[in-house]
Design a protein that fits this description.
By secondary structure, the protein is α+β, with helices and mostly antiparallel strands. Helix content is 42%, strand content 13%. The chain is built from 17 helices and 13 strands. The strands form 4 sheets. Strands 4, 5, 6, 7, 8 and 9 form a 6-stranded antiparallel beta sheet that branches. It is elongated, with a radius of gyration of 29 Å.
């Protein structure tokens, strides 16, 4: 009977179109045997690595490859066939399954055909995403925790774009190793939906899976039904800008930042996909545009002189020069805010603004050779943390203004409490 049961399970697995399992009730309909006898055979099949069973979540797909045999047997003994479960060919049996070989040219479908779990993830080089991010035919979106890729409406089912390129990646996350090096992490179920051509592109960029783990937020959302526990540092950054602007309105002043960038995600405002000096310089340029360049001098009008007199060294003539936005912010904070703490938060946040401005200016004065270095990922992470802390400090200072204290803007709890994912 065991061989008959396995044959029915394998037939369902390969004929379902999605590597689905055979339910216990389907099995009973295909056999003319007593229920208890069939359950006893199933137990033997589990013990001897002929097949596995799924009973948690959606049992009609095999979620993960590595399920403890003891857990399957415990469920089988306790449920006595009354609870829903599905049966799947054991990977050991699938090693020699002829039906699996038709998937050989589609790497991730082939993994599923060989018994991998549909929710098992694979890790890839970050540069895999560049193909989609840089091609305007695709809609590429990420908050540096998770994202998705799809063909734009204009090119969907169009004659000008080959069908094999009209792909949808329903979701991807980011994976890490113990040194916090970043990778793309995608579950096999989503990879299997890619065209054969794109599956092979991704397979060429796959990295060793050892000691890789998914971002905790992505894992919680993808596998545990979580709505989230913290904000991405990039989302938090723009929300801080928006909070600051709302506080300015309550103070009866123009917005400090021209744009908060909350309405639409800014291209490139994310963790790098390639650790090169040129990519980092582009990010620094964007970050400075969102900080120092984004400050409106109208905010300071009436509180400070917007220009200063300087003596020209060449001839001693006094000329009038406009003050920079960082200098104005520094002067305004020191004029209207006094810290009760020994450490000066104004010094800290102004230092961050100046550091980013200086980093942006440096590439303009030199021509250098581009560099690829994994350490650049960590350099960028340190920089965005410093920038986020600066705008957060600024928001906390403005929150002490009397008009803001009596009528504070509504704030996201995670933002208020500093619950931020910084990787």
């Amino acid at each position: 009977m065991l061989d008959k049961i396995y044959t029915l399970i394998e037939e369902k697995y390969f004929s379902s179109g999605d590597f689905n399992g055979l339910t216990f009730h389907e099995l009973l309909r295909g056999l003319d045997q007593d229920k208890d006898e069939v359950l006893a055979e199933i137990r033997v099949g589990i013990e001897t690595d002929v097949f596995t069973i799924e009973h948690l979540g959606n049992p009609h797909i095999k979620s993960f490859a590595n399920i403890k045999k003891s857990e399957m047997l415990e469920f089988l003994d306790e449920s006595k066939g009354e609870a829903i479960f599905c049966m799947y060919p054991h990977p050991e049996k699938l090693k020699n399954a002829a039906a699996a070989e038709i998937y050989r040219d589609t790497p991730f479908a082939y993994e599923l055909a060989k018994g991998a779990g549909q929710l098992d993830f694979r890790a890839f080089e970050l540069s895999t995403l560049e193909f989609y991010r840089n091609d305007p035919r695709y809609h590429y979106e990420t908050n540096s925790i998770q994202g998705q890729i799809c063909v734009t409406d204009e090119h969907f089912e169009s004659e000008g774009m080959p069908e094999h390129d009209q792909v949808l990646l329903q979701g991807f996350g980011f994976a890490y190793d113990n040194e916090l090096s970043r990778y793309v992490g995608v579950i096999l179920r989503y990879l299997n939906k890619l065209s054969p051509e794109h599956q092979r592109i991704w397979a060429a960029k796959q990295v060793n899976q050892d000691e890789k783990w998914l971002h905790p937020e992505y894992f919680a959302k993808a596998f545990q039904g979580s709505w989230g526990t913290k904000l991405s540092i990039f989302d938090a950054f723009v929300q801080e800008l928006d909070q600051i602007n709302q506080m300015c309105e309550r103070m009866g002043k123009p917005k400090l930042f021209r744009e908060s960038y909350c309405e639409e995600r800014i291209r490139g405002f994310e963790f790098l996909l390639r650790p090169t000096k040129s990519e980092l310089e582009s990010f620094v340029h964007l970050l400075d545009k969102m900080m120092s360049d984004n400050i409106s001098k109208d905010f300071f009008r009436g509180d400070l002189e917007l220009e200063r007199d300087i003596t020209r060294k060449s001839d001693g003539k006094v000329i009038v020069e406009p003050k920079g936005t960082i200098q104005l912010l520094d002067e305004w904070l020191r004029k209207f805010y006094r810290s009760a703490e020994s450490e000066d938060p104004v010094e800290e946040l102004i230092k961050a603004f100046r550091k980013i401005r200086k980093l942006r200016q440096e590439p303009a004065h030199r021509i250098g050779i581009d560099i690829f270095d994994q350490a650049i990922f960590r350099e960028q992470r340190a920089l965005i943390i410093e920038a986020y802390n600066a705008v957060r400090l600024l928001r906390m200072i403005l929150a002490l203004h009397p008009e803001v204290e009596v009528n504070p803007p509504q704030i996201n709890d995670w933002l208020r409490d500093g619950k931020i994912w910084d990787f």
